[in-house]
Structure formats: C-alpha cells, structure tokens
Design goal:
single chain; alpha/beta; Glutaredoxin; Serine Threonine Protein Phosphatase 5, Tetratricopeptide repeat; 3 domains; 13 helices; globular
C-alpha cells in the first residue's frame, strides 16, 4: 500500500459516536466532574500508548477522548509499513507529553472496528476528539507531515472543545520517560556561517545546500530548519515576476499556484498576515490535491516565521476552522 493522504475534513460515521454538539457537551461535563473531584491525576508515560480492542473501545477511546485527543493507529503484525510508522507515532506520543494519547488497534483481531472506521488499507491513522472521529492519513507518511497533522489536531481539540491534554508524571515509571535527545555530532558553526554568507551573496541554492548538510546529521537543528525555510522562500521569490504574479492571483482566485506565488511575495515583502490570509482563503475555496498543496505550503510559511509568533498562532486557528 503506497502512502496517501486522507482528507482531514471528513467525519467518520460510527454508531457509537455522538453528534458534535453532544460530544462537546459531554467533554465539558467530564471536565467539570473532574474539577469537582480535584482534577485528573497525572498519568505515567506508559499510559500515553495503549492497545485497544473492541471490548474496550468505549472506555479506552470514546470516553478518553472527552479529556484528550486519541490518535488511532490501525496496524497488523504482517504489515511492513506499519512497522515503520508505529515507532514514530509512539515516540511522538511521548514527545507531545499528554497532548494526545495513541491507541493501537490490531486489525486482524478487531475486524469490526476496522469496518466501522471504513479502513481500506493499513497503516491508517484516525483521531477521535470528544467522541468525533476524523481521518488523518494513510501509509507510512514522512515525520514532518505527521507532526504538522498532529499540531493541527491538538490545536483544534483545544480551540473547539477545550481539550488541553492530560498531565504526565515522568517520575511515575522510572525509565519510561522519553529518552534524552542525543548530542549532535557538530559543531556546525562553519556550515551555518557558510549558509549565512551564501544568503548575503544571493546564492540561495548554496545556502539551501549548506543548511541541508547540517540537517543530515542534526535533523532538529532549529537554526538550520529556520534558515532552510527562509533560503528556499527567497530562492522561489527570486524567480518570480511580481507584476505577473499579482495579476495572475487577482484574475484567478482559485488558481492555487498563483495564490502560492503571491503569498510568497507577500511574506518576503513583510505582509505576513496577508500571506497567511491568502492561503487560508485558498484552502477554503479548494478541495483535493489543490487544497492539500495550499495547506502544506502555508504550513511551510509558518516555519519561516516561527511557531511561537502570534501571527502564526492566529493563522493556525483560522486554518483549523477551515479544515474542520
């Protein structure tokens, strides 16, 4: 089974799942009851990844989803892509530290659940938020794409249902906490300096390559990730004719390529909110591959500005409202 994206805008019809409004009310009631009882106790890291079967689905997934988003990993022992994807999801569950819980469902032993969710092939990943089921993606997707999807999921869970996750007691189970990140091979000062010099000289291709050289050894290096996003943006914009791009974007609001190019120009020109707003509107107007292209490009522009920037936070919320 080749990896393919599944639209995040659909909702799976399960007999056990309540309507969205009822689900939200249920989530609010659960939080109120928890508050009256002194709050939900912290869970050990081992509780962030659970095996679920048909008998426990109601309590382990539906009820739990009133407190925290539950990501479901449909897998099987014989499935080789599953063996690539599952460890990534388990590691991210630990890294996200209670912002979602990972439920693993063996399709061979739980055919009814597989049918209820309409699973066509595995690995397949869904989420349940306040009793509402959403398809996320299918296949062993790249980790960067998985992170973007999870970021959107936890934000929607918080904004629409007030689900901020569960507390994790890292000391509850010695040795179960996420392993400390390995010390990067480094140092990367020379490569990073070379990238900056290439940027200053207008050699965007050289800067891109220098940043990628750092990321080969240290994939999470924040300076290299940010620099790469900026260098790629500048490289794209350098090939554009602003007048042609602006006219094309104005004449064809539904032309995804034109809107992407115009958003790049907006961002480089300092019009950050205009760039974000343009692509959010493009996502709203489009569907299928065009919508995915606009969404993924917008997520890439978020990387250029930085996830903590208030403009990014605001735009993520707008994007989530359009998608869901």
């Amino acid at each position: 089974m080749q990896p393919r994206n599944m639209s995040m805008s659909g909702v799976v019809d399960l007999a056990a799942v309540k309507a969205a409004g009822e689900a939200k009310a249920k989530a609010e009631q659960a939080r109120a009851e928890s508050a009256r009882q002194g709050g939900t106790p912290a869970v050990p890291p081992s509780a962030l990844v659970i095996d679920v079967d048909e008998a426990g689905f109601e309590s382990d997934v539906l009820q739990r989803s009133t407190e925290v988003p539950v990501v479901i990993d449909f897998w099987a022992e014989w499935c080789q892509p599953c063996k690539q994807l599952s460890p990534v999801l388990e590691r991210l569950a630990a890294e996200y530290a209670g912002r979602f819980v990972l439920a693993k469902i063996d399709v061979d032993a739980n055919q009814m659940l597989m049918q209820q969710f309409g699973v066509q092939g595995i690995p397949a990943v869904f989420a349940v938020v306040a009793g509402q089921a959403l398809p996320l993606f299918q296949g062993a997707a790249p980790e960067a794409q998985i992170r973007q999807t999870l970021d959107q999921l936890v934000q929607v869970a918080e904004e629409r249902f007030g689900l901020t996750g569960i507390a994790v007691d890292a000391d509850a189970a010695p040795g179960a906490a996420p392993e400390a990140a390995a010390v990067p091979v480094g140092p990367y000062d020379a490569l990073l300096e070379a990238a900056v010099q290439a940027l200053d000289a207008g050699d965007f291709a050289g800067a891109v390559q220098a940043y990628r050289n750092v990321l080969v050894d240290d994939p999470e290096n924040p300076e290299a990730k940010l620099g790469l996003a900026q260098a790629e943006l500048l490289g794209r914009v350098g090939k554009l004719d602003p007048q042609v791009v602006r006219k094309a974007a104005a004449d064809a609001p539904a032309d995804v390529r034109a809107q992407i190019d115009a958003a790049d120009l907006d961002l480089v020109g300092g019009h950050v909110e205009d760039a974000f707003g343009r692509l959010v509107e493009t996502v709203r107007r489009t569907a299928g591959a065009d919508r995915d292209a606009a969404r993924l490009h917008l997520l890439g522009l978020f990387e250029v500005i930085g996830s903590d920037d208030p403009r990014v936070v605001k735009a993520r919320g707008a994007l989530a409202r359009v998608l869901f």
